[in-house]
Design brief:
Helix content is 30%, strand content 23%. By secondary structure, the protein is an alpha+beta fold. The protein has one domain (6-281): q2cbj1_9rhob like domain (Jelly Rolls, Sandwich). It has a 7-stranded mixed β-sheet. Strands 3-11-6-9 form a 4-stranded antiparallel β-sheet, with no helix packed on it. A two-stranded antiparallel sheet has the order 4-13.
Length: 294
């Protein structure tokens, strides 16, 4: 163990989540917020109001995000649950403005990523306080029995997720655990951990960066060759095309890399939406046939 205790690692594997974990200093978190504001000024709008592409894979065009996803403390934490060879598959800025109606319905990250085996972990790094009032994430333990739930890409209004996805199976929401974080702390959640978040009722922005880390042996299961960022160890699986670090903020080549990365991510995502519905359609049909036969 580099950063977690053995008990913390066991808790993560049993429940599918772990929090709060100290990651950044207060000064580092403040510096990231200042960097974000500078990037938003360059883009011409706060990220929640800008083109959605700017929220994703910012490590391709912002050197400070590239440094953040490689932060030694964060990688030590992630290594304790994934092992030494680590890639970043994707990252997303999750920002809720003060008083905004933005929310996330119950969902799992695994649903539309198209990665196997199910070993990806999201490190959700709080750059501002993410209290219950501010709409922190809530999670459900999978109690040692992780499984993929059936989702609908419902395109819900005010959803912080692009597909507005939600789980369409019954869940026991009474067991939800709020993962409140202070600026500089992070939480971990497994790709099959069901989670949601409420609107921000606080007087400040709730700013977090969700970083999707995968061990190098994980592979994409769709028809697209996917890019990823090697951040520790070696690309032992060879399943991904490795991305370069950006030479400068909004540098021309970095923007070109970001455009290609975002386009491929969206292509894969749409393919996985169809694949998921087909899989659960077959499963539901088989279940209905078995019930009728019984």
């Amino acid at each position: 163990m580099k950063a977690l205790t053995p008990q913390q690692a066991r808790d993560y594997r049993q429940h599918g989540f772990l929090f709060p974990i100290p990651a950044l200093s207060a000064e580092e978190a403040r510096a990231c917020l200042a960097d974000l504001e500078r990037a938003e000024a360059r883009i011409g709008a706060p990220l929640p109001q800008a083109d959605m592409k700017w929220r994703g894979a910012a490590y391709t065009y912002l050197p400070w995000v590239d440094r953040l996803v490689r932060h030694p403390r964060i990688l030590d934490i992630v290594e304790d649950v994934l092992g030494p060879d680590i890639l970043v598959f994707w990252s997303t800025f999750f920002i809720k403005e003060a008083g905004s109606p933005t929310f996330a319905a119950w969902h799992q990250d695994a649903t539309y990523f198209g990665l196997q085996p199910y070993e990806h972990v999201t490190a959700w790094v709080a750059l501002s306080d993410a209290s219950r009032e501010a709409g922190c994430m809530e999670v459900l333990s999978f109690a040692g029995r992780p499984k993929q739930f059936h989702h609908s890409a419902a395109r819900l209004a005010h959803s912080i997720n692009g597909a507005g996805q939600l789980i369409v199976e019954p869940l026991d929401e009474t067991q939800a655990v709020p993962m409140a974080l202070r600026a500089g702390e992070l939480s971990l959640h497994h790709t099959l951990c069901a989670h949601r978040s409420a609107p921000n009722r606080a007087a400040h922005r709730r700013v977090g960066l969700g970083i999707s880390y995968i061990p190098a042996h994980v592979r994409p299961v769709g028809s697209y060759r996917m890019p990823a960022l090697l951040v520790r160890g070696a690309n032992t699986g060879g399943h991904f095309d490795l991305l370069p670090s950006p030479a400068g903020e909004f540098a021309a080549e970095a923007l070109a890399v970001h455009e290609r990365t975002y386009r491929r991510y969206r292509e894969n995502y749409h393919e996985q939406e169809k694949r998921h519905e087909e899989q659960f359609g077959r499963r539901n049909a088989a279940g209905s046939a078995a019930s009728a036969a019984g």
